[in-house]
Design a protein that fits this description.
Residues 6-227 form the Thioesterase domain. The chain has 236 residues and is of the alpha/beta class. It has 7 helices and 6 strands.
């Protein structure tokens, strides 16, 4: 009988424990999905927001420890991919079990982090226009000023953490990476190839149609890739 494998997900800026709920139906019975959640949202709404990428990584590290006693796969989108990479380096440093595979979507390699736009500094209206263009939020939400009054500070702090992060090269980890970006994203081939700085194993690069939030239309295909890794016998 196949052993159950955990899929541990790390959300994008502004995301929460429900960000990947539409991925779950496609995963099949051999994968248990766990979505980590940062303070200031979802079930942790009463906790103060973090605006430092390393403090966020520390928080995720504490959350992930109970879930990595058995085989697992790690998946992060956008900010979640940067956090996932820092988490991988932390797990390696602490001699913890690394995942079978690391899935990255919508994210240039961290070595290019200094090239990010400084969106966290934009006035509210411009930031909302950027969010609309990226495709991460439904128009109905963007037009609901009360909801946006709650969401914008969360997104802004997350973006600040991401955009102020200064990359430092760390010793490579030994987990293969699959990197998927949208065809209409502002991410170059060189920026995806840069993920090879992080892992000594294979880095597979794919492109799917769509903008930064192409994942919402591609969860079935992403799930197929994850299931292929989970069902590969040599991981038992």
């Amino acid at each position: 009988m196949l052993q159950k494998i955990k899929l541990i997900c790390i959300p994008y800026a502004g995301g929460n424990g429900y960000s990947f709920r539409d991925l779950q139906p496609f995963l099949g019975r051999h994968l248990d999905m766990v979505t980590l959640e940062l303070p200031g949202r979802g079930k942790r709404i009463t906790e103060p927001l973090l605006s430092d990428i390393h403090a966020m990584t520390d928080d995720l590290y504490r959350q992930v420890l109970p879930h990595i006693r058995s085989p697992y796969i790690l998946y992060g989108h956008s900010m979640g991919a940067v956090l996932g990479n820092l988490l991988m380096h932390r797990l390696k440093k602490e001699w913890k079990t690394l995942p079978l595979h690391f899935f990255v979507t919508g994210c240039a390699a961290p070595v290019f982090n200094h090239q990010r736009k400084q969106r966290h500094l934009l006035p509210d209206e411009q930031l909302m226009a950027e969010l609309k263009e990226m495709g991460g939020m439904p128009d109905a939400l963007l037009e609901d000023l009360d909801l946006m009054e709650f969401f914008l500070p969360v997104i802004r702090e997350d973006m600040k953490a991401l955009e102020c992060y200064r990359y430092q090269a760390l010793e490579k980890y030994s987990t293969a990476i699959t990197v998927i970006t949208g065809t209409n994203e502002d991410i170059s081939d060189a920026q995806t190839a840069g993920w090879a700085h992080e892992s000594e194993k294979e880095v597979r690069i794919l492109r799917y149609p769509g903008n930064h939030f192409f994942i919402f239309h591609q969860f079935q295909n992403i799930a197929m890739l994850i299931r292929d890794v989970a069902l590969t016998p040599h991981h038992s």
